[in-house]
Amino acid sequence: MGSIFRTADAFLAEAMYLCGYTPQPPHRDIHKTALGATETVNWRYEKSSLEAVKTLKNEGYHIVAVEQVQGSVSLNLFRLNPGEKMVLVFGNEVDGVSEEVLSICDICIEIPQFGMKHSLNVSVATGMVLWELVRAVV
What we know:
The protein is α/β, with parallel strands linked by helices.
């Protein structure tokens, strides 16, 4: 989580929602890698990722899951419409994004991968997705 906080800070993410059993600041492991980013990135905890996503969708956010599913769009082809507010949903390291959450997402994007494992650490995936989205507009 500390790495994700630092990445969110680097790309000026509006906020992070930590859900389920995700550790929350203050936590020594987060503090060690966040290097102060828990103070510069707005965050909140929600027990249910489904409820958090529903709330954000009702607030007008475009919900984008980062998940390998049938029909997902390759990250390099995805573009957000100008002025559109977006939430990126990253899943659990082992189980990914739940089916319940996927069912209310507007779109799923995936990072093209060519190796045998077809999975990335969530902090690495976060960095790659945020960079690609920022790169597309700068």
